Amino acid sequence: MVKVLFFDIGYTLVNEDAVWERRCQDQAATEEAKKLGLTARDIWYEIERASAARLPQFMTVIKKFGFSQAAPYRHELETLYPDAPAVLGALSEKYSLGVIANQAEGLSERLRDFGIGQFFTYVISSSDVGVSKPDSRIFEYALMAAKRAPGEAVMIGDRLDNDIAPAKALGMKTVWIKKGFGSLQTPHPEEAPDYTVDSLPELLGIF
Questions:
Q1: What is the pTM assigned to this prediction?
Q2: Residue 72 has what DSSP assignment?
Q3: How do beta strands 173-177 and 153-157 pair?
Q4: HSE-up of residue 124 (Cα within 13 Å, Cβ side)
Q5: How crowded is residue 147: how many other Cβ atoms within 10 Å of its Cβ?
């Protein structure tokens, strides 16, 4: 039944650890953070708390401490998980592959720079379609682009709130990759993923 596999990007195909470490450092270096006595570790902890509570990760921290500006997200610090190309290559021989992600402009170019752009037939980015996860419309847009029913599609991502719950509510199958901040979340019974994995190579045992 499964015809197309959709992937998230951050902490699914791409390791964001260096990005978030730098972002916390940059935020802690602001005069506002210094006046509050906040360290990079303090800010990282608050992001973890927001993630576990299913709140917007960084913006929750910004609002909590009243920062006037948020430190930038530095895409250049992202690194592709080493096993991603081989896994995507193997899966693309049996399925159509796509992306559904909350991303800034230029996602297709970044995928090409990572050397994995050729594996994806559908690249659905929030910056391109004007709708962000967990809004069901971005998933519906992706299904329409692929000309597939929900039951023929799988969503693979690291966050229960943004990836698993909304996809499952539409009738898509789901795979939760327990990485990054999303691994701190706990699934409610009605949104339990069809599969839970710790790494990309485990997908080859499922599909």
A1: 0.96
A2: P
A3: parallel
A4: 24
A5: 10
pLDDT tens-digit map of 9-22: 999 999 999 999 99
Which residues span the domain enclosing 27?
17-75
List CB contacts of 143: < 8 A, sequence separation 6 or more: 149, 150, 153, 170, 172
Please report, for the domain that includes residue 181, its CATH number.
3.40.50.1000
Distance CA 193, CA 187 (A): 8
Q: Are residues 90 and 115 in the same domain?
A: yes
- Measured in whole angstroms, the distance separating CA 35 from the mean position of its chain's CA atoms is 33
pLDDT in tens, 95-125: 999 999 999 999 999 999 999 999 999 999 9
Strands 96-101 and 79-80: unpaired
Same domain, 65 and 84: no
pLDDT < 70 regions, the chain = none
Are 23 and 8 in a shared domain? no
Tokens representing residue 106 in the block: 């230029």
